Amino acid sequence: MTAARVTARGAERWVRGHPWIYRSDVESHPGGPGLVPVQDPRGRFIGQALLSPASEIRLRLLERTDRPVDSQWWCERLLAAAARREGIDASAYRLVHAEGDGLPSLVVDRYDRWIVAQILSAGLETMRQPILAALVSLFRPEGILLRHDVAARRRERLAAETELGFGSVPKEIEVREGGVRYLAAPWDGQKTGAFLDQRSNRILAGEATRAGGRALDCFTYHGSFALHLARRAGGVVALDASAEALDRARANAALNGLGNLEFRQGDAFETLRSMARAREQFDTIVLDPPAFAKSRATVPDAIRGYREINLRAMRCLAPRGTLLTASCSFHLRLPEFLTMLADAAGDSGRRIRVRQILGQAEDHPEILTVPETAYLKGALLEAD
Ligand SMILES: C[S@@+](CC[C@H](N)C(=O)[O-])C[C@H]1O[C@@H](n2cnc3c(N)ncnc32)[C@H](O)[C@@H]1O
After folding, report:
1. Are 40 and 6 in contact (CB under 8 A)?
2. Domains of the chain (ranges, CATH numbers)
């Protein structure tokens, strides 16, 4: 098969541990999308890559040798990813975190007996059948849903619609996470049906909750943090702007037999401001907002937003109160996040201790040489 030829700078990216080679570093390539052998400027074979002819990210390294990428190859790679997840105390977790698992542009999430996957590049799309076949033969799911309703596929000029890939998948799936059960929404929920990346932080927040105390979960979505808090707290206020999200959060509270949650629909900025003004106090607060920075250019505005909610939350902490705060904006890097928290703490008049710096759950592996694999950051803080 005709090879793609890359520049020395392109080849150097693979040497330095990043799987992407951009359009500007590809000297020539075959016409259609698919798996192609790749050569350096001197014509030496350097690996096999997924080619996306219409994308800025033109080549994604899949295999460094010339070994055939066939069904056995897929089974081995998927089994290796599954082995890295052994021991996870939940029935919903990420099985493949794309570049984080050496499988660029492939996301596979497991929801109990079902799988929700995303094939996010034109090159990988050509391998849809062997991937689905390997998932079916290894994990025997009752169904595989392809959550392809995402912008990443549009950028690759691929159809961006949710599709059933195999079997059948229900509208709601009951899953377990530590001692909590919740209903995931694979067809129409955010991401692939739940925010799996916060699983370990939700369990941590539950453990850090003061027994019998008062807790607040801002941006609660389906109540996932609130459920963990409510197992220990006396009462939990669960806040979200979306009435639909709160309906599911109520159903999740009922599923766990928890009657100590109060659901409030409202804007977190306004609510936190009025709570701080009214000197309301909470022993535990969780802030897990949506990504405020959608691009590098919007980071300064985003920082103002993050600082505002963190400042108000810090003011609402009871003595020795705990704040678990997060940002899922890829463009806001960890040092900027910590600087923002320090500024908010300075304005709050409270002395705030860092108990733990947080990241995404371990089934969303971050690769040091691939910064795009890391987006979620957070901190567990404690007031005096
Ligand atoms: C990242 S999700 C939260 C995920 C959740 N903590 C979990 O672990 O599953 C963000 C949530 O914030 C809500 N939201 C967005 N803007 C808001 C605002 N200004 N005030 C309150 N909620 C908001 C969205 O409806 C969404 O449910």
Report:
1. yes
2. 4-63 (2.30.130.10), 71-173 (3.30.750.80), 195-383 (3.40.50.150)
